Amino acid sequence: MTRPPVRIAAFGGTFRADSLNRHLLDAAVRLAPASADVEILEIRDLPLYNQDLDPGMGGGSHPSAVAVFRAGIERCDGMLLVSPEYNWGVPGYLKNAVDWVSHPPRDSVMVGRPALLMGASTGPAGTGRAQLAWRQILLSIRTPVLVDALQVPLAHTRISREGELDSQLEEQVVALMRTLVGEAEVARDVGLPARLRQPSTNPVAGMYFAPTTLSE
Ligand SMILES: Cc1cc2nc3c(=O)[nH]c(=O)nc-3n(C[C@H](O)[C@H](O)[C@H](O)COP(=O)(O)O)c2cc1C
Q: From the CB of 105, is ligand 1 less than 6 Å away?
């Protein structure tokens, strides 16, 4: 029996024309295993979070751009999040996007879908501080984050204005996308999203909740 392709939802980057993070996102999509179905979810049109418009928090219906974004997450098996680092933390617009899809608690579309972090910065830290913050945020909403991640310091020296990656970076992206697709397939096959919807006292869910479990 032919198995359906593993579906990956990719989002992030910044909105400026020459965004290094957007180049990285586009390259990761291009370099993903051919067997996977990778879809970019655009977040540019998401409004600021408003609980009154979040049915997951007792509000009315989602604005249409949120509904589209949410549906993209819902149909994926794993996620790629490409985030810059702003002021040693996560950028507001990307946190806003994740906030829109983070409820109801324990039952949101983010639960149990493995996420890979990538990020590019012009500084020497390569978005490492933002990624630590992302791990904490994603842990709180039961999104398992792969231990392996990509941090690109001095990214303007590694990614061209046309979006070409240097060969070493390209190899890293290929390897990480292969890992993500593998982890997403495992999560799909074991029904990880459903397991993680169990209360955290459940020993099986607790086991998978440990952020290192999926890739060690
Ligand atoms: C508001 C703001 C805050 C920034 N803070 C950091 C930072 O904390 N660490 C860092 O390495 N770079 C920081 N930078 C520099 C970014 O790494 C750089 O602008 C990068 O190119 C942004 O990603 P982009 O190319 O995808 O737009 C900051 C940039 C902006 C605009």
A: no
Q: Which helix (H) or strand (E) holds 39?
A: strand 37-40
* 92 C-beta closer than 6 A to ligand 1: no
Each residue's pLDDT tens digit, 13-60: 999 999 999 999 999 999 999 999 999 999 999 999 999 999 999 999
Q: Is 15 left (phi over 0), alpha (psi -120 to 50) or beta?
A: alpha
68 lines ligand 1 (CB under 6 A): no
Q: How far is the CA of 16 from the centre of ligand 1 (A)?
A: 11
How far from 186 is each of 48, 137, 191, 213, CA to CA, in Å? Answer: 34, 23, 8, 12
* pLDDT tens-digit map of 129-184: 999 999 999 999 999 999 999 999 999 999 999 999 999 999 999 999 999 999 99
Helix ranges restricted to H, the chain: 20-31, 64-74, 92-100, 128-140, 167-190, 192-196, 203-209
